[in-house]
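Ex. 9. Protein: Fe2OG dioxygenase domain-containing protein.
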Amino acid sequence: MAAMREALRLACISRHGFGSKVGLQAVEPVSLPVIDLGLLGDGEHSRSRPLVAREIGRACQSLGCFLVKNHGIHESVMRGALEAASDFFDLSAEQKAELESKDMRKPVRYYAGYKNTNEARELLKHYAHPLGDWIRCWPMTPRDYRERMGRYATDVRKIALLLMDAILESLGLGPAYLKDELEKGMQVMAVNCYLERTQPDHMVGLAPHSDYGCITILLQSCTGLHIFDKEGESWKEIPKVPDTLYVHIGDHLEVISNGKYKRLVHRAVLNSEKRISIASIHGLSMNEKVTTAKELVDEQHPKRYKESSFQDFVDFLSSKNKSTNGRSFIDSLMINGP
Ligand SMILES: O=C(O)CCC(=O)C(=O)O
Ligand SMILES: [Fe+2]
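Predicted structure tokens for Fe2OG dioxygenase domain-containing protein:
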């Protein structure tokens, strides 16, 4: 009887839909390119650098994501960040509620999805760059949260800058392209905690979406991230590969590249254990407009996106469901519509 109910339930859930209801249907792990960052960091004249940049470009253009190894972040720093996050979510509901807000504009915000929705997710979102400006707004408890998360934030940002440099190079944009803007850019950390999957499982993780920034670097305690593979038209699971970090493309890189590199639609599902993920989102600063590189616009490739800033994204989120007709942020930027 239970098996029949399960079979019926699986048959009811659309296999490829973008719907937020995520069942237990089998989702294959995806095979991801693994980029050796050790070969990128050797300075601009390293012989391997152009090859690695090309490899990154290929990954951006095909799947829209890849893993990085030899990234230089010590295992203890990554473990420390995951533990600090876990310790924060272990605090009492009252303690966490002190940071609770529905205001998307707040630089530090706690949100418990299970309170009002069927999302079994808690989120602590905080700005992280410039770190000195924001860290004093981060949670004061657990006592070592700021130190442990701060160390990871600093390290992961270095990787983001290195990767953005290589990604822009792979687009044929000069070595100084957006260098200053990225140096001054935003880093937002979405620290997520998903409850373990229980039966009956009417709860979901995180609904399908793309991230607003240029790139997202994700650290996870166990599997639960799915990406939408456009070619296979199916969801695929991101494996957890020891010592690697996972990277995917956000809306603003799609805009810069005039659609050559597409944002990656992804979702999170529940695991049989509590899951922590830390998504570090990197882009230009609050009021800096992101525009399509003019080098990538010509008669055959007319400009496809309007310019926008991080502030525009936050405003968009704040007005969602009021005036956006269910459209995503990137849809709202497309000159000829989605
Ligand atoms: O938990 C995950 O794996 C994904 C999190 C995510 O997509 C986000 O925070 O934007
Ligand atoms: Fe995301």
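Check your answer against this statement. The radius of gyration is 20 Å.
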